[in-house]
Amino acid sequence: MPKSTPARKTTPARKSSSRKPVLYGAGVVLAAALLGYVSYQATAPDDSGPSSSSVADVAADPDAGVYPELAKLARRDAGDKLAQGRADAPVVLIEYADFKCGYCGKFARDTEPALVKKYVDNGTLRIEWRNFPIFGAESEAAARAAWAAGQQNRFWQFHAAAYAEGAKEKGFGKDRLKALAREAGVADLDRFARDAESSAASAAVSKDQEQGYGIGATSTPSFLINGRPIAGAQPAETFTRAIEAAAEKARNTEDAKSGRDGKSGQDGKNAEGAGGAAK
Fold first, then answer.
1. What is the pLDDT of residues 98-148, one digit of tens each?
2. Cβ(208)–Cβ(30) below 8 Å
3. Where are the transmembrane segments (predicted)?
4. Rounded Cα distance, 213 and 258, in Å
């Protein structure tokens, strides 16, 4: 089973002392501890221990392993240039990733396209990217460059180019990032270069990174699916099960709010009345 890439203990660009602390509820603290533990297990050298897939197992109870406070981290901003899918989609997958992470690339190439085709295209799923650079200066530069490409609506094209097979082995120096932007179809490369070095880019990356550390992510890739933490580039079935469970729960919640029977599609009162008449 593929394993996630471990985070470094410290990151030079992360200056937490200059930022306000991120405050979360007790449920998020518990989830952070769980995600941190699972992230460690996903990168542990001894495979005899518990597998990271344990957190992603979807039990019969759709609420098992789901933390409502984490679900609230979905931004659902229709103008978010680092997201794809309807802002009101019933399921939101948040991905915390680094462009230098090999397993992030594996997810991007092997799993994500199928999820987009099956769930994003039909309005079920929204994917929100969070830059979580953990491997030093080149990671930070690639994250800012991805954000800059997004300002010209080419984030996902840059994402595909940066995660192409063999791309990370070429590094993410300034010239290489410009070449990736050109490959991604970024129209104004001068603007791209300025944006990538701007304070706005640094602030956006820092915001995402702070959120990742705040929920206890210790490796890449790490995911949240409607508040369910998943660590590592798990098999596609793990994501499919989690998305299906979240979508089903969302449907049931909507049915309950509207007074409809989720299974029959009938109004609860009318169905009861019809049942009484049949007796």
1. 999 999 999 999 999 999 999 999 999 999 999 999 999 999 999 999 999
2. no
3. 21-40
4. 38
Q: What is the largest CA-CA distance in the chain?
A: 77
Q: How far apart are the C-alpha atoms of 90 and 225, rounded to whole Å?
A: 10
CA distance 119 to 127: 10
143-162 pLDDT tens trace: 999 999 999 999 999 999 99
Helix (H) or strand (E) holding 83: strand 83-84
3-state class of 256 per DSSP?
helix
Q: What is the CA radius of gyration of the chain?
A: 20
Q: Hey, what amino acid is at 254? A: E
The answer to whether residues 43 and 6 touch, using CB atoms and an 8 Å cutoff, is yes
Q: Report the amino acid identity of residue 222.
A: S
Residue 87 burial (CB count, 10 A) = 15
Residue 192 CA from chain centroid, whole number: 24
Report the DSSP beta bridge partners of residue 33.
none
d(CA 172, CA 143): 10
Q: Among all chains, which residue has been given the structure tokens 């981290």?
A: 73
Distance (Å, rounded) from C-alpha 174 to C-alpha 13?
17
d(CA 27, CA 268): 33
CB atoms within 10 A of CB 23: 7
Which pair of structure tokens corresponds to residue 215? 């929920």
Q: What amino acid occupies position 42? A: A
CA distance 222 to 150: 21
Tell me, what amino acid is at 228?
R
